[in-house]
Design goal:
207 residues; alpha+beta; 2 domains; 26% helix
Length: 207
């Protein structure tokens, strides 16, 4: 796996006041741009050859000794093989400080995620994604009779197929001696608990 990144930050008060010095004891407008890139080589065909990258920008304006406003925008591409998994993130922030040059700060931030049609969690959080995706049901007539939308069906089927493949890979490693055949106590307790009958609550329609 190859991972690389770059970031560039510029304080415009220093640029505009050049050649005079600026010590930070005044209004300041700061901008930064950044980008991260990763490529994967794996025996798993779902991950082999996958490219992942993220880029964005952030701007911060300190107009009072105790108050600053900031905003950040991110574009995330977790899978180059499926553009529908890409998503965007917008994060406005308010920063409170005691003085121009103080180091402590209190930040109030709000983050908004704009998901793609195939955006989903990766392992090991994919089981949580299945649970949250299938917990909410709709009328069968609205989504083809299965109670889920087409993007939800795609996510559930893709994650389920990936988990089956991971189990098969673990079994192969166990047989070849690379995987310990002794289950841990935690795994044994989970297996015992999984055999117990559980009560399932009927799903409720979304509001």
């Amino acid at each position: 796996m190859l991972v690389t990144g770059i970031e560039y930050t510029l304080g415009w008060a220093r640029v505009l006041r050049y050649p005079s010095d600026f010590g930070g004891d005044g209004p300041e407008f700061t901008t930064s741009v950044f980008a991260d890139y990763a490529s994967v080589n794996s025996q798993d065909p779902d991950f082999d050859g996958r490219k992942m990258y993220k880029f964005g920008a952030e701007a911060t304006y300190r107009f009072l000794p105790w108050l600053a406003a900031s905003a950040r925008v991110d574009r995330v591409v977790p899978n180059s093989k499926d553009s529908e998994e890409s998503f965007n993130v917008v994060s406005p922030k308010i920063v409170l400080k005691t003085d121009w040059l103080s180091h402590e700060s209190v930040t109030f931030a709000y983050t908004r995620w704009f998901y793609g049609d195939h955006t989903h969690a990766e392992f090991p959080n994919d089981l949580v994604a299945i649970s949250s995706t299938t917990r909410c049901t709709h009328s069968p007539s609205a989504f083809g009779g299965n109670g889920r939308s087409a993007p939800q069906d795609f996510i559930v089927n893709k994650i389920a197929a990936r988990r089956v493949k991971q189990v098969r890979m673990k079994r192969g490693l166990r047989l070849s001696g690379f995987w310990s055949p002794r289950p841990s106590r935690r795994l044994a307790s989970r297996t015992t608990a999984a055999r117990r009958p559980t009560r399932t609550k009927p799903s409720r329609p979304c509001r």
